[in-house]
Structure formats: structure tokens, C-alpha cells
Amino acid sequence: MSHILTAFPLQASYFIATLLLILGLKRMSSPRTARNGILWAGVGMLIAVAVTFVYIPGVSELIIPGNSGQRLVLIFFAVAVGAVPAWWTGRRVPLTEMPQMVAIYNGLGGGAAGAIAAVEMYSGRAYSGSLAFPIIAVIGALFGATAFGGSVVAFLKLQSWMGSPRIPGRHFINGILSLAALALTLASIHPDWVSGLNLSVDVLISIFLVVSLILGIFVTLPIGGADMPVVISTYNACIGLAVGFEGFVVQNPAMIIAGTIVGAAGSLLTVLMARAMNRSFLNVWFSGFGDVAATAAAGGEARTMNAMEVRDAAATMAYSENVIVVPGYGLAVAQAQHKLWELVQMLQAKGVKVKFAVHPVAGRMPGHMSVLLAEAGVPYDLIYDLEEINSDFANADVALVIGANDVVNPAARSDKSSPIYGMPILNADQARQVLVIKRGKGVGFSGIENELFFGPNTHMVFGDAQGVITQMIQALKEV
Amino acid sequence: MTGFVALYIFLIAAIAGYEIVARVPVILHTPLMSGSNFVHGIVLVGAMLALAEARGPLEVFVGFVGVVMATGNAVGGYVSTERMLEMFHSKKEKA
């Protein structure tokens, strides 16, 4: 690495940038300070990128004398090419679709880490020092490229552009791919070991990256959509580590520290998320959730649900004391959060105490529903966690379940054969009355029947959440 | 940077990362994941340096792709996190 990169102003700027990134991340982990945490981190990032731009001509000058200006323009162009679509999609995409966008932005970072490793290895710089450099470069590239391939699949699944195909002999295929990736990893660390194959380093490294990418795709393919948060979070941690590793290769402390911190924080976050969903990490990665669910849904005899008119449902709530709202993804898909908040405010005006019970995995990702409610203007002090509110259901007159299914399914408590058995659920069934707004009689995201809907104290209000809530508001005006 | 200094940095950074998220409430899981995704967007700095040092068409091409992807990571990560966190306000703050 060129001596110019050890200049004091550059290193000092990286130091401040790293500090801001860490403090920003720290602030983002508490609701009170979260909002400006991203701003701190953003400023840190701007400093790091800006100061790098200043020093780049000096770096390029050593490589391509006389042409460094051209290279600077090229880099600027690349930044613009990456920034414009990311900015545009990030601004335009509705918040309901944020999880898949996080998956794709995340994956891009992994691809970038792989690209850095590739350039360093193509050029031979990664091989010029001790063996530690190629080892770290190659492992970082493996993590980055695999996570990139997997993130693209996660994106496609959450976007519903791809299901969970059951690939025959997938364990065999994944085994072969893993072995191939491992062999290529070793070969890439020290290409002389495979000099008998007459492969150029360029070709070897390229094959290695492509195989890693395919491995990521295949490992992720069979995992069900409901488990995607854990998958994305795992990749986030992997990519953090990859960035840290490549930071070591290009001797950039900001990358080492920021990357490693994300690697560690991301790993813990993955565990916390898996715990919130009552899924073990290994279970998510190595068992096909979708398979079990499909078979479980097939059984069961026909039973009847009690239907209720919208007006009656509205009146029931208007004359209760305590109402707990359980919002689910169906609410968000119907874009009914704003209407719901209007309804809740009307109930509050009538003296009804209303709380929101948000299951950790309501929506498509832990915390997703809170974001969607907040978007509608629901203050977060009305939003309660599973542990905070579960004991309150027994005292609630009405539990209003909107577009939620699996998170209130009592089978999770009682039915050992159910794929969601053991998942902590919201005890909506313990409320005196349960009102369920649901579009049809279909099953939930995990594909299983919900006992709650057939309960004696449950009434179904069939219809689109947006329409039903609008009618409820109308009915309340007349009460 | 010698191997062991790097190892110590890894160690301390890993512990710091663990501590940062040790007590994060569930409602912040998604925004925090998105936020940490933005933080590893620092990979952009490395990608820029790699492209600055690239020789020959293959290296330049891969370096270029790397910068494009890293920028997508950083910019997309920032915008999505910012939009999610924007939503967090309490009753008192509402004007």
C-alpha cells in the first residue's frame, strides 16, 4: 500500500469518521436517540468518502502516471452509477417493502467486499506479503460473495418474485458446492498449490468468486420467506466481517473497525431475532420450514367461523373499556394503518383505552410493524411488546386482530406437531371477545390453520382491512 | 500493520459491537439491522482505493463494479435507515 495513505490528515479523518460511525450505531440502538444516530453515522461516512476522494489522485498517480485525473473521473462516475438508483429506490419504495430493500443494499456491500479482494488478488498485491494477507482476503471474499448471492435470493423471495422451490437432493448439491468452494478457497490462498492445473490466477479467482456466489444462492433457496429476517441478518453480519477482512488487506483501519463491529453486532442481532421468533439459528439454516408447513396445512376437518357485521363490531368496541389492537402484515398490505389510527383516536375520544400489541415478528421482520404504525402517526408509547402486554389480554374486553394470523395462533402453545410450536404468541384468545378482520378464510404466511378463528369468543369480520376499518369509522360516527 | 495488532483491533471491535446491541429493544431490530448495514457501507472507501490502484481492463472492470455496489450499499443503507427511524417519535414530540 502506497505511503501516501499514511498521511496524517487522511488517517485523522478516518479516525473521526470511525468514531462517528460507532457512536451513530450506538445511538441507533436506543429508541430515544435512534433518530439522529443515522445522521451521526452518515456524517462519518461522508468524511471518510470525501477525504478518500482527495487522496485518490495521489494513489492512482503511482499506478498510472499522468492519468490519475481520468481515474478520478471514473471513480466519481461509478459512485454516481451506484448512488442514483439506490437513492431513488430507497426514497420511493413503500415501508412495507423495506425488508427486501435492506436485503439487497446489504448484499451489494458483500459484492463490493468480494470485488476488492478480487482486485487485490488479480494484481498480486494480496500475495506480496505474508500468507496472512491472502488468507484474510480470500475468506473475506468467500463471505462477501456468498452473502451477496444469498441476499439476492432473499430479496427475490420477500418481493414474492420467487418461492421456495424444493430442489431434489439439495443437501447433496449444497455439499458439493461447499466442497468446491472450500477447495477453491484453499487454491486461491496460494495459487502455486494448484500450479499443475495451468490456471491463471485471474481465472482461478474468478471461478472462486462465481462458485461462492452460487453457493450463497443455493443455500438460501430452500429457506422459507418467514425466516428471511434471520437470513438477512446473518448475511449482514457476514458482510460486516468481510468488510473488516478486506480492510485488513487494503490496510484501512476504518474498514477493519466498522466492519468488525457490524460483524459482532450483526451476529448478536441475528441471535436476538431468531430468539424473538423462537427459531433456532441452525434450524433456520438447515431445515426446510416451508416443507413442514405445507403438510400440516393439508389435514383438518371443516369447521365454522362466526361472522359478525362491521357495525356490530364497531359498536362492541365503542362500548368496551379496554381494547387491544393486534396488527399484522395484512393491515400493512391493505395500507390501512392511517385509517386504523383514525379509528383508535375515535375510540379514545369515547373513553376507550386502546393499546397496540405488536408481536416481535409482526410484519415481515422484527420491529417492522412498529415502523409501519409509527408511519401512521401512532406514538410509540402506545405500542407494547409481547412480554409487556401478554398479561393484559385477560383483562381486555376486545382484542381486535387485523390481518395477523400466525402470531396469535394458539397452536404455538399446544400443538406439538405444528411448525410454529413453541413460538411465543400474543394471547389474544384470552380476551373476553376477539374480533378478527380478515380478507378471507385462508391460512397465514406459514401456511397453517388458526384455531383462534374457530374459538367460541371469536367473531370474524370478513373484508379488506382498509374497507372494514373505514366502515367502522363510519359506524362509530353514528353510534 | 502487523498481524497481532490487527488481531487486537478485531478483538476489541468485536466486543464493542456486541455491547452496542446487547440491550436493544425488539422495535429497533429492523432499523438497527438496516443501520449496521449502512455502517459496513464503509466498504466504499476500500472499493474506491481498489479502483484507484487497478491496472488492466479486468481489474478496472471489477473495481468499477465494486465501487458501484459499495455506493449502493452506503446510499441505500442510509436512505432506508433514515426513513425507518424518522417514524420514531413519542406523543410529547408531536406538535
List the helices and strands and how they pair.
The complex is a heterodimer of chains A (479) and B (95).
Chain A: H1 8-28, H2 34-63, H3 68-92, H4 98-122, H5 132-158, H6 170-189, H7 201-220, H8 228-249, H9 253-276, H10 281-286, H11 289-298, H12 310-318, E1 322-327, H13 329-333, H14 337-349, E2 353-357, H15 368-375, E3 383-384, H16 386-389, E4 398-402, H17 411-414, E5 433-438, E6 458-462, H18 465-478
Parallel strand pairs in A: 1-2, 1-4, 2-3, 4-5, 5-6
Helix pairs in contact in A: 1-2, 1-9, 2-3, 4-5, 4-7, 4-8, 5-6, 5-7, 5-8, 6-7, 8-9, 12-18, 14-18
Chain B: H1 3-21, H2 29-39, H3 43-52, H4 56-85
Helix pairs in contact in B: 2-4, 3-4
Outline:
The complex is a heterodimer of chains A (about 475) and B (about 100). Chain A is of the alpha/beta class and about 475 residues long.
Question: What does this protein structure show overall?
Answer:
- The complex is a heterodimer of chains A (479) and B (95).
- By secondary structure, chain A is an alpha/beta fold.
- Chain A is built from 18 helices and six strands.
- In chain A, strands 3-2-1-4-5-6 form a six-stranded parallel β-sheet.
- Chain B has four helices and no strands.
- Chains A and B meet through helix 1, helix 2, helix 3, helix 4 and helix 8 of A and helix 1, helix 2, helix 3 and helix 4 of B.
